[in-house]
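Input set for joint prediction.
Command: fold jointly, output tokens.
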Amino acid sequence: MDTVTYPDQSVCDLISSALVAVRVPPDNKSLGEEFDVKWTPTLVTLDSNGKEYHRTVGFLDPKELIASLLLGEGKYYFNNDSFPEALQALEKIITQYKDADAVPEAIFLRGVSQYKNTENPLPLKEAYELLDKEYHNSEWTKRAYPYRLIG
Amino acid sequence: MTASIHWETEMDKAIELSKKEDKLILLDFFNPG
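tokens >
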């Protein structure tokens, strides 16, 4: 991460503008135990109350890290019922980081956020259809499977 | 010029900044080796 990902200008810009970044060395046993960290690198997104919204384990290249950080932001807003803000973060992943591993989950959460924001269930079906077409083997396609019956 | 991230090392300081700047916190558990 230190050699490839963190020196990337886009990564640096996103972290600097949107996050308070904390490095936790291996000798900080108390935080490691508090967050049940078993392997490094482990990245955890928290709010200011210490509530966890997203975590990844293992190396991520710059594109994957940015998409993952945006997913953490989207999940934070989603879990706090701030759907327009969640949609902004999720849309960015889907449109700007099309090949990233975070995209299927972002499509799923976008559909759910649109539904919760408008009470129109059609975005759930559209999320399933897009997942089935573009990410047929994704776990998120399976999770969205019941939405095919909407409409 | 190489981009660089400002890393906090103290959790209390990070929480204080998170509240003040209305930002989420990114914890990076790393192994320098």
